[in-house]
Amino acid sequence: MISLAGRDIMHDWGKFVFTGVGLGLLIGVTLSMAGIYRGMVDDGKALLDNSRADLWVVQQGTLGPYAESSSIYDDVWRGIRAMPGVEQTANVTYLTMQVHQGERDVRSMVTGVTAGDPGSSGWPPYLVAGRQITRGHYEAVVDIATGFKLGDRLKIRRNHYTVVGLTRRMVSSGGDPIVFIPLKDAQEVQFLKDNDAILQQRRRTAANPAFNRPQVPGLLEDVISSQSTNTYVNAVLVQVAAGYDTEEVAQSIRRWKRLTVYTRSQMEDILIGKLIATSARQIAMFLVILSIVSAAIVAFIIYTMTLGKIREIAVLKLIGTRNRTIAALIMQQSIALGVIGFVVGKITATLLMAPIFPKYVLLEPVDSAIGFVAVVVICILASIIAIRAALKVDPAEAIGG
Amino acid sequence: MKRFPVQKQTLAIMVVLLPLLALFIYVSLRSGPLAPIPVTVTRVENQSIAPALFGIGTVEARYSYKIGPTVAGRVKRLNVHVGDLVKAGQVLGEMDPIDLDQRIRSQEAALKRSRAQVDEALARQNYAQTQARRYEELLAARSTSEEIVTGKKHELRVAETNLDAAREESVRVRAERDALIVQRRNLLLVAPVDGLVVLRNAEPGTTLVAGQAVVELLDPQSLWINVRFDQIHAQGLNANLAARIVMRTQAAELTGRVLRVEPLADAVTEEILAKVVFEKIPDPLPAVGELVEVTVALPALAAAPVVPNAAIQRISGQLGVWQVVGDDLHFTPVILGAADLDGHIQIREGLKAGDQVVVYSAKALTLRSRIDVVEQIPGVPR
């Protein structure tokens, strides 16, 4: 049996393929947009995954450490570690800032990881090059998105750090790459003011008669030195021991330690529901509009394509072709167009579009499947309109009526 | 011949569509969550590692001296400036004596007066003695009365007592004068040892309370480093271990050794404190308070299976490595031993030499991950 649609496509296949490619680019943009939205949500989840915590213990009444600032004493972990059901605790600090290297600077999230063995909470879970931090000071493991290389010297505040390891997909909820440094340095980074500010502060303290008393030699020095220490961290990451209910452990820390505790799902709600909610909705809205526009364009292309063949269809009707055959011709053509468009779209989105975005673009197979179904359904719907127009055509038109 | 154009068209369309289809399949399988994860692997090696401890500290002086007045007063003069080297016993400055000199002069006059009084008392005593002897002789010749002799003896006793009193008074006055001289000398600020002036707290004319330092000295030969090691990474820290010292100001590496590990650790910062001395005090002298990085080398350990620390993972609370056996990936729990600063870590249990483990991966691995063993993870800048 000779396929009527196939024969028609063959008749002018160049035009057909190019239409398909054009359609494909449009579908590619839509898929990329879906990828950008997914990537945004995934950035938020990556942060939670990478910290490998079951519970986040933060300052009472805050949405910390990601959505709000939170600070708790750095020895709070000792009390938490002793609670039943707690397997491991780790102090952690987060601060988004510019990290300098030579002439350039990169916006990144500086994360302080507590000293210990690799694999502790807060540490980068996997590396792509180099090694994990071994010294307690002045070493850094960075995300490759920062563009830093092994052995680079970074400047964070006034100290220099050597890049010893590279990792991937370690980003803040805003998509800024993470720079991991030892906790003690990170505490200093959060607190340490520039030298001018420190000098001014010393002068201000010295000018205060309450602290600068001639009868009490040494008081001023002690007050000043107490002003330049930081005993705070942003959160304590807790891993719950096997066999304990996460929510129960969280509840007992909330109750007895008077701190706010978030579980993984609560943290996800905060990050995705609060922190990136507006920007994610913005992208999602754009995705919806883009999808509608793409659908409309697909429908128009198929409709005009059919109308362009109206004379041939009239001939077919004239020679007594059944309506079903004509409908099948149009529908097969439109589905073929849709499939070519989808294939081209998927390829361009994956190979050409996604890699050039500065932030992460996550192309989920599920999205592709949904996209494929949507494309086919739109093609079918569009072809139905076209079929109605085709069937209404008067066979007399074929002979120039 | 009629079919040929169609065949040609079919061929052409195949040329376009087939690569497209192939590309699509490649894209679907090689990217996104379905793609195999690029990993690099290494073999576990039996090797000896030399662990080391890394800490930071500040240069401090073992002996430093705060020199100031013992009583409240005003600085009269100050001869030394910061950076001067001084000798033991050298006068650095002086506190204002106010009326002390006058009081010494007054005491000296009083001393002279008391000496004159002693002379006077002595003269009286001599006279009384002569009189007493003369009357005793007269009594022996029965030419005077007993009562008069007794009176003369009494006068002699009184004169002797007066002489004693005058002598003691003289001693008292001399002691008082001496005390004032000592006090006067105490107003001099004197270097107790050979040292370097590091601080000049007050200028002449400044009033100070007792105990406030005017000048601070330190012994340059006693410079050492107060180093802090995180308690979790301080195992094996001992006296006499060799240390490499990098000062913040100079790139050159110095050598030293651990003098002692402090018995008291810092409970708040969770650090162990140790004192490290220089093998040779650097010239020029390092600034006291300068930040220093210290690496203490521990003795090399016996050979044992060693993996890079990047290979260590924690999966559901268990430390382990991803082991590659054939094409299969499985998670092997391990017990970690000592580690060195270059990222090597000994495995006490779980692995043997020759095992193949995953070092780097482009993503977190799971038991279901498909892996693609590569030389280097794509995208890593060389």
Write the layout of secondary structure elements.
The complex is a heterodimer of chains A (401) and B (382).
Chain A: H1 4-11, H2 13-51, E1 55-58, E2 72-73, H3 76-81, E3 86-101, E4 104-113, E5 129-130, E6 139-143, E7 153-156, E8 159-167, E9 178-182, H4 183-191, H5 195-207, H6 219-227, E10 232-233, E11 235-240, H7 246-257, E12 260-263, H8 264-275, H9 277-308, H10 310-318, H11 323-353, H12 365-391
Parallel strand pairs in A: 4-9, 6-8
Antiparallel strand pairs in A: 1-11, 1-12, 2-10, 3-4, 3-11, 5-8, 6-9, 7-8
Helix pairs in contact in A: 1-11, 2-8, 2-9, 2-11, 9-12, 11-12
Chain B: H1 3-30, E1 37-43, E2 45-47, E3 52-61, E4 64-67, E5 73-78, E6 85-86, E7 91-95, H2 100-140, H3 146-186, E8 188-190, E9 195-200, E10 207-208, E11 215-218, E12 223-230, E13 242-247, E14 253-261, E15 271-278, E16 291-297, E17 304-308, E18 313-315, E19 318-325, E20 328-333, E21 335-339, E22 344-349, E23 356-361, E24 371-373
Parallel strand pairs in B: 1-24
Antiparallel strand pairs in B: 1-23, 2-17, 3-12, 3-16, 4-11, 5-7, 5-10, 6-9, 7-8, 9-11, 12-15, 13-14, 13-16, 14-15, 17-22, 18-19, 19-20, 21-22
Helix pairs in contact in B: 2-3
Care to describe what's here?
Chain A is of the alpha+beta class and 401 residues long. Chain A is 52% helix and 17% strand. Chain A has helices spanning 4-11, 13-51, 76-81, 183-191, 195-207, 219-227, 246-257, 264-275, 277-308, 310-318, 323-353, 365-391; strands at residues 55-58, 72-73, 86-101, 104-113, 129-130, 139-143, 153-156, 159-167, 178-182, 232-233, 235-240, 260-263. In chain A, strands 1, 3, 4, 5, 6, 7, 8, 9, 11 and 12 form a ten-stranded mixed β-sheet that branches. In chain A, a hairpin with a 2-residue loop joins strand 3 and strand 4 (104-113). In chain A, helix 1 (4-11) packs across helix 11 (323-353), helix 9 packs parallel to helix 12 and helix 11 (323-353) runs antiparallel to helix 12 (365-391). Chain A is elongated, with a radius of gyration of 31 Å. The two termini of chain A are 32 Å apart. Chain B is of the alpha+beta class and 382 residues long. Chain B is 29% helix and 35% strand. Chain B has three helices and 24 strands. Chain B has helices at residues 3-30, 100-140, 146-186; strands at residues 37-43, 45-47, 52-61, 64-67, 73-78, 85-86, 91-95, 188-190, 195-200, 207-208, 215-218, 223-230, 242-247, 253-261, 271-278, 291-297, 304-308, 313-315, 318-325, 328-333, 335-339, 344-349, 356-361, 371-373. Chain B has a six-stranded antiparallel barrel with strand order 3-12-15-14-13-16. In chain B, helix 2 packs antiparallel against helix 3 (146-186). The radius of gyration of chain B is 46 Å and the shape is rod-shaped. The interface between A and B is large, with 56 and 61 residues.
